[in-house]
Structures are given as structure tokens and as C-alpha cells.
Write a structure and sequence with these properties.
This protein is α/β, with parallel strands linked by helices. It has 2 domains: about 5 and about 20-170 and about 360-375, Glycogen Phosphorylase B (Rossmann fold, 3-Layer(aba) Sandwich); about 175-360, 3-Layer(aba) Sandwich (Rossmann fold), CATH 3.40.50.2000. The chain has 13 helices and 13 strands. It has helices at about 35-45, 95-100, 125-140, 150-160, 185-195, 210-225, 240-255, 270-275, 290-300, 310-315, 330-340, 345-360, 360-375; strands at about 20-30, 55-60, 65-70, 85-90, 105-110, 145-150, 165-170, 200-205, 230-235, 260-265, 280-285, 305-310, 320-325. The protein has a 7-stranded parallel beta sheet, sandwiched between helices. α5 runs parallel beside α8 and α6 (about 210-225) crosses α11. The longest helix has 17 residues, at about 345-360.
Length: about 375
């Protein structure tokens, strides 16, 4: 049962009480970045009082961990200290409507909305959803007591929409936790015994904002002129079937079908296997929020190459090789080759990454986030 239904969880008759701080998501599924962040936060928020996670569209596999939004206690009983932590990503209409009908204070957790429009020819609906999400986000500015962004880049987006109290705070996440995950045996065997040559790994959704087409162009230069025999592995879900087909077709056009592996969604144990095999982690995306795969890669001592775009420079600091955003695939390819072959550079990047992980200590991040919550609860 959700903790909000526990007898005696809260009483407002002059007694000292613990606030109920519940989280609300649009959708929840295993491995999803927003869901993972919410579950990490739940352990932190439980230090204050009862704390559950609700989603408009929870995956069946998360039953007992994430509750359907329809089960949120009604009528809206809310105490003076209660708080809703509302996670914002694309497609927030149902959550925005839910929040409008509640009396709790609201803290908004902003994961970012893509700035890159989707090609209407590939998905006529996606651009409309993105624009609607921006309008719905703006409609919540007077309802949110505080808005929390994982980066200054995301904070500036919220301020441009009129949010008054915007605070930058990295989410408390431990990227090193994957290190203790046993790698999937079949995936590990294939990566070790079948996939020869340097492996360049990207982890994230196969979406236009992640710019997989730019990764393919850079890899074409790399595999043709710099490191023949290399492989590019794009790890993560492909929610837009037509866009996934376009990326597959582009790889074939470039003559890379034999060297590019588009995995689709993977389990946590499979993900650990990919990180363990990676020679270089590479991303070209326009990241707005806190890009956790970049830090996961550094936890495995995998050098990172990224475009200096969005929130990525803030998240990485000096722990990665940043390529100017305005440069094209040739410089990106050269950076990828250098990170794979220059041992001095690799050692410097790994050492810097270890320092960066210490700076982003999850306990310190949890303390900062609790401070922000206590300010408004």
C-alpha cells in the first residue's frame, strides 16, 4: 500500500508531524532515467517522512514500487508541510492536470525538454507533443514553490519560462553502483570474443536530440581513415520506430552496417557488460538535464568524448574530452581516435573523472536536495 494511506502517517491537530513528500512522474519503467532518479530520491526523502512514487503510466514490472496516479489519495488531503515532487519531462499533460487539482506545495524537478525538433515527416505527432509540453510546463510556474534543475543550462530554461525560485542541484545518484552489477554473460561473451577492435559506446535514447546521425558521420570518418576495425554501439531504447529505421538506413548507406550495433533497450546487467567493454564513451547530444550515462562511463574508467553542448560541460567538468558544439564530424572523429589510442590522454581523463565523481558525491547531493525540500516543506 502507498505510505500516504498508512494510519497515523500525518496528523494536523497541533501535533508535531512528519511531512509526506511524494513524487509524481508521467511514466515509469525499469532503466528509464527519470524513474531511476525518482527511486534514488525516494530513499533520501524517506528521511523526512512517508514518501511514495506515483506515475500516470507505470510499467507492470514496477508494481509495488511505483503506484498508478489514479491511486493517489483523494479527496486531496494535504497538510501544511506536505509536498509533491513533480518530475518534468516530455508529455506532462496528465501530471500538470493532476497538480492543478491538488493543495500540496509543489517542487518541480526538471529533467529537460529537447531543444531539437523532430522531423515532422518522421513523426508528425512528436513536435506537437514537445510544444504542448513547453506550454504545460509554463502553466505550472505559479503553482511551483521551487523548481530544481540538475544544471545551470536547465535552470536558465526554467527562468526563461517565468519560474521565480529556480535552484541548481544535481540529483543524488551513485553512478558507481553499476560496478557491482554482474554483467550479462551472453552479452559479455559476444563483446569479448566476437566483437574485435576498439569499441565506442553511446548510452541513451535513439532520438534526434541525441544526434545519432552525427555519431554515425564521425564514426564513418574514424573507421575509414583512423581506426579501421572499430565498432560503434548505440545502447538504449528506440521509442520512435520510423526514426530508428532512418538511423539503420543511414548506417547502411555509409557502409557501416557490419560495424554499428543498435541494441535497443537493455537490462541493467547488459548495460554493465557494455560499459566494461567500452574503450571510449561518446555522445553528441544536446543534453539539457543531468546526463547520468556520462558519469556511469567515468565510474568504469571509460574516457568520455562529448560535444560541448547543453549541460554536458557542467556535468563533466574537466573529466572528458569536449569538442566545440559548432564543429562537425571530422573533429569529433579525431577526438574519438585520440581518446582510444593516446595512453597519456586516456590516463589524464580517467584521473580527472575520478576526481569529478568525488565532487559529485551522492551523499552531498542528497544533503543539498533535502535542504531545498525543507525550505519549502
Amino acid at each position: 500500500m502507498p505510505s500516504a494511506a498508512h494510519p497515523g502517517a500525518a496528523s494536523y491537530h497541533g501535533c508535531a508531524v512528519s511531512p509526506q513528500v511524494h513524487q509524481v512522474l508521467v511514466s515509469a519503467s525499469p532503466g528509464d532515467a527519470v524513474t531511476t532518479a525518482a527511486r534514488e530520491l525516494q530513499a533520501v526523502l524517506a528521511r523526512l517522512g512517508p514518501s511514495d512514487i506515483y506515475a500516470a503510466h507505470p510499467a507492470p514490472e514496477l508494481a509495488g514500487h511505483v503506484f498508478p496516479l489514479s491511486r493517489y489519495p483523494r479527496p486531496p488531503h494535504a497538510g501544511p508541510a506536505d509536498l509533491l515532487l513533480v518530475h518534468v519531462a516530455t508529455g506532462i499533460g496528465e501530471v500538470a492536470a493532476f497538480v492543478a487539482g491538488r493543495r500540496e506545495r509543489v517542487a518541480l524537478v526538471y529533467h529537460g525538454l529537447p531543444s531539437t525538433p523532430v522531423c515532422r515527416a518522421l513523426d508528425p505527432h512528436a513536435d506537437a507533443v514537445l510544444e504542448a509540453s513547453r506550454r504545460e510546463l509554463a502553466s505550472m510556474r505559479d503553482r511551483a514553490t521551487v523548481a530544481l534543475a540538475g544544471s545551470g543550462h536547465g535552470a536558465r530554461q526554467l527562468e526563461a519560462l517565468g519560474f521565480a525560485d529556480v535552484r541548481v542541484t544535481p540529483l543524488p545518484a551513485d553512478p558507481a553502483r553499476l560496478l557491482s552489477t554482474t554483467p550479462d554473460a551472453a552479452t559479455e561473451h559476444h563483446l569479448t570474443h566476437v566483437l574485435a577492435g576498439p569499441a565506442f559506446v553511446f548510452v541513451g535514447g535513439l532520438l534526434p536530440a541525441e544526434r545519432p546521425h552525427l555519431l554515425l558521420q564521425a564514426f564513418h570518418v574514424l573507421a575509414t581513415f583512423l581506426l579501421p576495425g572499430a565498432h560503434l554501439i548505440l545502447v538504449g531504447p528506440a521509442p520512435m520506430k520510423r526514426y530508428r529505421d532512418v538511423v539503420h538506413h543511414f548506417a547502411r548507406q555509409l557502409g557501416l552496417a557490419h560495424a554499428v550495433w543498435i541494441t535497443g533497450d537493455v537490462s541493467r546487467s547488459e548495460l554493465a557488460a557494455f560499459y566494461r567493454r567500452a574503450d571510449v564513451f561518446v555522445t553528441a547530444g544536446d543534453h539539457v538535464g543531468f546526463c547520468s550515462p556520462v558519469l556511469e562511463a567515468t565510474a568504469f574508467d571509460v574516457p568520455v568524448v562529448a560535444r560541448s553542448q547543453g549541460a554536458t560541460p557542467e556535468v563533466l567538468g574537466d573529466a572528458g574530452l569536449l569538442v566545440p558544439a559548432e564543429d562537425g564530424p571530422f573533429l569529433l572523429a579525431e577526438a574519438m581516435a585520440a581518446a582510444a589510442t593516446d595512453e597519456t590522454l586516456r590516463s589524464r581523463l580517467v584521473a580527472a573523472a575520478r576526481r569529478r565523481l568525488q565532487q559529485l558525491d551522492p551523499e552531498q547531493a542528497a544533503a543539498r536536495l533535502l535542504g531545498h525540500v525543507l525550505d519549502v516543506a
